[in-house]
């Protein structure tokens, strides 16, 4: 029994000695292989260079570097997210960039930027959705609302994620012009936007998209009212403190709803000469949204203005604001009245096609407008 125990102990002892020896041999072999691999790697790098040693890495990294630094798409691609973090000062500065060479080195399809200045919801959005349908690539949409408003358009809507960073805009005050400049500046970031239309949530189009696009595209002028009103609501609002930048003979008045081209939009966003004067010396009862742009653009580019608005309104009821039309007002007779009896100049020639948009329409007008649109609006 004792001899059996001794033999068992001896065999276990010998096995335990063999096992560490094998592990030690494997470890030594691994270290030798690692050393050999290191020597070969150093030699290869010195002999052939890093690029040949890692051919699979550089092709994946190099295109990213080239695209980020040199690709033209980075300059001409419109912003993917309109909710940026730029201040107004930064935004206006960025939007004032403009190429000095007028021939574009890429195929540029000019678009109309439809800019909605709203308090919040767009109750007539379904009508506009039908208007825009099928014309992708020829328009851009931006809307400015109260900062507290959170839009909830579905992803299928043309208004989805088209809200810009907004601030409070008060009627008749400089904050209203600030909102309009904010819309223009955001729209200018898209190099393909050539024309800019300011609309409200109560506006509707009076023709189908193709007619409106071609009317604006073929016009030699931008459509902004800028007339010399000699009465108390025109020159009567002028202050001599506007001198020397603006004298009374240059003082103009017009509707805030306009259509302008890219050149005039740049004049507005880059202006630092007239803005301080209007901000300080045109306050109620001087309503700056009726005078700032008409006066400034008349001074800088008066020959580019048609001196009329293309947005129809009804002032027949009197008061400080035009008439608002609800569902009960929208009849076939009413629609005919909008289109009849107009005379104006288009490219210096007489025309009866004077208005492309109309306002003001209440939310209750949506259903009858939707029903009458195919017959009267063409969509």
UniProtKB/TrEMBL annotation:
What GO molecular functions are on record for this protein?
glycosyltransferase activity
Q: Which InterPro entries match?
A: BC10-like, Glyco_trans_14
| Topology of the protein relative to the lipid bilayer | Single-pass type II membrane protein
Segments passing through the bilayer: 23-45
Primary location class: membrane
Would you tell me the Gene Ontology cellular component terms?
A: membrane
Q: Which UniProt keywords apply?
A: Glycoprotein, Glycosyltransferase, Membrane, Transferase, Transmembrane, Transmembrane helix
- Signal peptide (residue range): none
Keyword Transferase part of the UniProt annotation: yes
Pfam families attached here?
Branch (PF02485)
Q: Where in the cell is it found?
A: Membrane
Keyword Disulfide bond in record: no
**Matches recorded under PANTHER family:** CORE-2/I-BRANCHING BETA-1,6-N-ACETYLGLUCOSAMINYLTRANSFERASE FAMILY PROTEIN-RELATED, CORE-2_I-BRANCHING BETA-1,6-N-ACETYLGLUCOSAMINYLTRANSFERASE FAMILY PROTEIN
What is the recorded name of this protein? Answer: Core-2/I-branching beta-1
The protein's organism comes out as Forsythia ovata
